[in-house]
Amino acid sequence: MTAKPIIRQVLPADLSQDRLPRHVAVIMDGNGRWAKNRGLPRIMGHRRGVDTLKRVLRYCSDWGVRALTAYAFSTENWGRPLEEVDFLMTLFERVLRQELAEMMEEDVRISFVGNLAALPQSLRAEIDRAVTQTTGNQGIQFTVATNYGGRQEIIQACRAIAIKVQQGHIQPEDIDETLFTHHLYTAEIGDPDLLIRTSGEMRISNFLLWQLAYAEIYVTKTLWPDFDQTEFHQALYDYQQRDRRFGKVR
Q1: Residues 6 or more apart in contact with residue 65 via CB below 8 angstroms
Q2: Maximum distance among all Cα pairs of the chain, rounded to whole angstroms
């Protein structure tokens, strides 16, 4: 059976390659509402949302964005109906298993951030397999935030640093932004330049609280399953019109 050829997307002419964000983060909101608006079960929205994430990853890879971080499951999401949570865990596992070959073909390097110990053992096994097999890939860095909470990440970093102080490995005066950043889940990834949130909600929902300090934020009312190439193009275009001063005056 002949493999389907990969069709690359060309960077739109009104975008500058030199001014693309290096790292894009997305809060994929609106899957449930998308399904409800169509009289479908919420799980159908999550299925469609996976398809959208695959497309956005492809756009990033083809256009030259070096890293994409997706907020897949927060520490607060355990409070959702048990049936929905179970479906999401099964969906994550199945998608990882099915998409690994394509990630290898497209040189994607995948990683996960969050408290992974609380996830089902079978899902953790698929995560370990995907991370191990793609670790040598040189393409886009794709990070999935799973059972992730920004406050919890900061607390665990503080605890790790406190233990090192207690053991005499570092002194309190050694603690600075660089040292603190090295104790976060995202130490190897770097901070996002652009955060995209769908569904019109104007909050960051405990996502990358430290890392988003100077990210540009783009909010669209479009629900995540409907977030297409035109929407992503508009987000990048909007980003390139911003004057990123990082608190300074030019």
Answers
A1: 20, 21, 22, 23, 24, 59, 140
A2: 62
Position 226: which residue type? Answer: D
* Angle between helix 82-105 and helix 121-134 axes, rounded to 10 deg: 20
Beta strands in 114-225 (DSSP E): 141-148, 194-197, 216-219
Catalytic center residues = 29, 77
d(CA 42, CA 225): 12
Q: Please, are residues 107 and 60 in contact by the beta-carbon 8 Å criterion?
A: no
CA atoms of 9 and 128, how far apart (whole Å): 30
Write out pLDDT tens, residues 113-159. 999 999 999 999 999 999 999 999 999 999 999 999 999 999 999 99
Nearest to 124 by CA among 140, 108, 194, 132: 132
- Determine the Cα angle at 62 with ends 61 and 68, to 5°: 25
Q: Which DSSP symbol is given to 219?
A: E
- Domain 20-148+191-240 fold is Undecaprenyl pyrophosphate synthetase (3.40.1180)
CA distance 237 to 82: 40
- Mean of the per-residue pLDDT values of the chain: 94
Are 108 and 139 within 8 A, CB to CB? Answer: yes
Q: Which helix (H) or strand (E) holds 245?
A: none
The whole-number pLDDT of residue 1 equals: 38
